What does this fold into?
Amino acid sequence: MIEGKGLYKSFGDQRVLSDVSFQIPEGKIVGFYGRSGIGKTTLARILCGIVPPDAGNVYRNGTPLWVKNRYDRKLGLKIQQVNQQPFASLDPRQKLMDGFRELIRYHHFAEPGESTEHLITSQLKEVNLPTDILRQFPYQISGGEAQRVVIARCLLFKPELLILDEATSMLDVSTQANIVGLVKRTQIERGGSVMLISHARDLVEALCDRIYLIENDGIIREHFPGDRKMKL
It folds into this structure.
């Protein structure tokens, strides 16, 4: 369970989030819907430890992620994010294989007796990518392939929460469906949760178990798919 309680955030004189509270239960896809610039990404940045809240906190199974404006990085590793621009998460100077190896080595992801190559191969299989893609640089692959590479890297952390921040908005409809199906198979079926951030109403209504509508000044309202009262 990931839970936000009484979150406030301002940048200068601009209030972005105002008394925001929410729950993301285990094994569910929860949508955060609202127009661009309304505070959705700020909320994700608080969850990932990029910016601190001015007040309130985020809890992972009851344990606060922020303590005196310091983020608990160990707890926060179980929250991973895929954003709209997957190439920004990949080093353009590294072949994909080298990027995977570096990440696995730094975080000690390989189990005793398990080779790094075997772990990488199994992760690529999870996201339906061929192993020969590892010889490529990021600029040599498509946007859909890059999105799946980033998801595979996030899944190495075995996240309890995977945040998709407008992660499919720049992809064609077919690729969007493939990415969403991939996330449901790899994340939801093993008990993880998904936070789907989008300004596309049809997308969140079709995919989410619960929807939070973010309105002006970061006021948040809870809705469920099929609730015709959900509107901006």
In short: Residues 1-78+193-227 form a domain with the Rossmann fold fold (CATH 3.40.50.300). DSSP finds seven helices and twelve strands in the chain.
